[in-house]
Design a protein that fits this description.
- Strands 3-5-4 form a 3-stranded mixed beta sheet, with helices on one face.
- The protein has helices spanning about 95-115, 160-165, 175-190, 195-205, 210-230, 240-250, 265-280; strands at about 10-15, 15-20, 125-130, 150, 155.
- It has about 300 residues and is mainly α.
- The two termini are about 20 Å apart.
- Helices cover about 35% and strands about 5% of the residues.
- It has 7 helices and 5 strands.
């Protein structure tokens, strides 16, 4: 595939190309183009909360229930850079739990400064990584998916047996990509996006075409957030080129399956938003609620 279309709208500042409108515009290249240190800084001042004297982040943390106009997408904001140290992936349940716990700590470190700096809440998610789907302890019913996020108890659920098919032939990149996507849903929940989405989808009709489009926007934003983590931290710690490549391979096939409800997005858009997040490293660029309908199909 080629680069962004001519009408995507961009300006060049200090050697970096900056879009004049937010979001993936329908075409990305396949080559690695991780943003790394060229990503925007974390929020330099609160976007949402009220100042508190003496606070290192100067914010009164509170969620904001909004979608396209959420303050996290109001300016160019990156993630904290982390030197993520991960155990080698071993194909058995206890080793998988150890891996996922270490990966959650990396994602916590990347997202905490960003959200607190934006005056938004931060809480680490719980992790439930059982051997089988039936052994999951989360409050949400499980449908056999490789991974899911339960907002009721703020838990990322990754049953080892269910995740194996989605993460086969990976040293660690696919496992980290799977987790980072669900972590993106946790971010959406704690900042208020998930509640605003639920209200909008309920109003549209949960299983109507409009309701399913809302679901795709939610899922594709989580993919963009996951790509941000990989793009900003590419080359740091254990997020090397092989890990990025394995994660990218997972992202290329993360869309809706044939015959399934249209709630995740087509493969080319799932990949496009993930790669866009990796290329840009910017919450403003992950505003799927603003995107044209064709880019969330």
């Amino acid at each position: 595939m080629s680069g962004p279309p001519a009408d995507a709208g961009a300006l060049r500042t200090g050697g970096l190309t900056v879009a004049t409108v937010p979001g993936f515009a329908g075409s990305v290249g396949n080559a690695t183009n991780a943003v790394r240190d060229a990503a925007p800084p974390i929020a330099p001042a609160p976007l949402a909360g009220l100042p508190l004297a003496g606070s290192p982040y100067a914010s009164a943390s509170r969620p904001v229930y909004a979608l396209s106009d959420h303050p996290l997408f109001a300016q160019h904001v990156g993630l904290g850079r982390v030197d993520c140290e991960l155990p080698e992936w071993r194909d058995e349940p206890e080793a998988a739990r150890v891996f996922y716990r270490a990966a959650v700590r990396c994602l916590d470190a990347a997202w905490e400064a960003t959200l607190r700096g934006a005056g938004l809440p931060f809480r680490a998610p719980r992790l439930d990584a059982p051997a089988t789907v039936d052994a999951a302890r989360s409050a949400c019913p499980q449908d056999g998916a490789p991974a899911s996020y339960c907002y009721t108890d703020e838990t990322i659920v990754i049953p080892y047996a269910a995740a194996r098919a989605a993460t086969a032939e990976s040293r660690r990149g696919a496992q980290l990509a799977l987790l980072a996507h669900e972590y993106g849903h946790h971010v959406q929940h704690i900042v208020g996006v998930l509640r605003a989405y639920t209200d909008q989808r309920t109003e549209s009709g949960w299983q109507t075409a409009a309701g399913q489009e809302q679901s795709r926007r939610l899922e594709l934003q989580a993919s963009c957030f996951a790509g941000m983590f990989f793009g900003i931290n590419h080359g740091r710690g254990d997020i090397d080129q092989q890990t990025w490549d394995e994660a990218a391979d997972w992202a290329r096939a993360a869309g809706d399956r044939p015959g399934a409800p249209r709630v995740r997005g087509a493969d080319h858009n799932a990949w496009g938003w993930w790669k866009w997040g990796s290329d840009k490293g910017d919450t403003w660029e992950c505003n799927t609620w603003y995107a044209d309908q064709e880019n969330v199909e």
